[in-house]
Protein 1
Amino acid sequence: MPIGIFDSGLGGLTVLDAVQQKMPDQPLIYFADSAHAPYGVRDADDVYRLTARAVQHLWDAGCDLVILACNTASAVALRRLQENLVPDGKRVLGVFVPMIEALTERDWGDNSPPREVNVKHVALFATPATVASRAFQRELAFRAIGVDVEAQACGGVVDAIEDGDMILAEALVRGHVDALKRKMPHPQAAILGCTHYPLVEAEFQAALGGDVRVYSQASLVAESLADYLTRHPSMAGTGGECAFVTTGDPKQVSDGATRFLRRKIEFLSA
Ligand code: DGL
């Protein structure tokens, strides 16, 4: 059966791409809530309501497992969804934990007490809503002690990427990295906590400097999903078909997605 991959817009395509490379036989349905993007400037209730509607759509379309390939939804809505909405046999997972497990050198599901880890100074770049939720710091505190996190809300970057204005996106990234460095001059690691940001990863790396390790979320999520499916084989499928649906204008979203992934992508109306 297909696995649902959800994002407010195009960013989750970075996760879809990594999942397709890792598991080419797995059927997928991608849902872009483009009519309501960006989520990163919405309040928590709004993000929850929109995320719940999208997840329900994917469950109704036959997905038993839905990945929130959106940090904002994972940070703000995942826990509430898992507590209130998940019917028997259905699952919804976020994209935060695989990244934090990588940062804290833990295997999946290692629930041992928090411990000291090698990395001490971490820069988090994310949307204003993700930063405000403090979900990253909370999840990290369950696993590690003594890690100093400085978060930078990267206003405008998602809109610029959705609009295909990469010159603006790159200029904004440089500005946000400068702002972060004024607060934390020497981060050891940087988390790109938004699924849109892999598109400007080179710009982040250049602005941060070569000695800062930048964590790439898409491949970590794909590896974690492959691992999950070996433990829950009934959630996996075969055939490799991939459908794309959006609440926005399908032609416009298809053009954006084709530019984003550099291959032809065709969205239908959700
Ligand atoms: N890709 C989403 C994320 O990972 C973008 C959020 C937004 O729509 O602002 O946070």
Note: Residues 105-216 form a domain with the Rossmann fold fold (CATH 3.40.50.1860).
Protein 2
Amino acid sequence: MNGRSGVIVVGSVHTDLIATADAMPTPGSSVLGTRFTLAPGGKAGNQAAQLARLGVPTVLISRIGTDSLGDVIAAQLAGTGIDLTYLARSTLDPTGASTVFAVSGEYASIIVPGAAAGLTDADLDAAESAFRASRFALAQLELGPDLAHAALSRARTSGSTTVLNASPIHGADPDVLAQVLDVTDVLVVNRHEAAILFHAPMTDRQAIAAAASMLNDRFDLKATIITCGSEGAVLVRGDAVIELPAWPIDVVDTVGAGDAFLGGLVAAWYGGSDDRAALRFAAAAGALAASGSGAFTSLPNRPAVEAFLQSCG
Ligand code: RIB
């Protein structure tokens, strides 16, 4: 593998404040909740934590504040074994937060990125040696497509396989998004994001596979994976289409399930799995995350994923 090792993850880390209830509050109303979880969150933090829990050497590039919430995040992420050399502490801005309403397996959130919004090229420059050493690089759109582009173009130049989780896609400038896709090897999106990207509804498996194939052709991607929640996932690489049904689980909440899927997918490829095995492993990690409460708090370790896969046959 050219002496390369490990995975680099660039993006947001913040505090998740997750309130679970039986109904979503509507404007002007309040509902009584049943559970509250406060934990590290943010897609980059979650994906890095998932990789590390699966035993993959992982470097996280992000920013948090010097406040007490930042201290809690730094301690909890360190506990997973992530290399936090490039988790900068900003003295100017507070640690960001995501207020999440989780109801019946769905969730809605308001994200205030705080210090993470100050992540710039200078932070990427500081991590140049990590970019040169990594085998995979992951970015998301939580801090906007410009940062994802800066991270993945740098990773591509340095020879890593680049993975874009195009989430959240709402509001992303389509021109910049196209530039990000131009430096992406593997695209992972959910079916709602794929519909926005593809400008057409993802009505059935055939439409989903066709959309993935056209995205591969248009942006010269090596593979596209479209996740469909309780209906599984589809991976398209060249002429190969792999469809996976979802695992049967009791959903507690889906916060972080997509991040567990991303971490599981890259961890499996990192370990040498082929696409079908990697998709199975990723879906199992996502299912386990959805069967627990919160994001960071429900990311499974490798023995849990392997036991789950064995129990599913
Ligand atoms: O993907 C889940 C994450 O999205 C949560 O941790 C929340 O922070 C939001 O950023």
Note: The chain is about 40% helix and 25% strand.
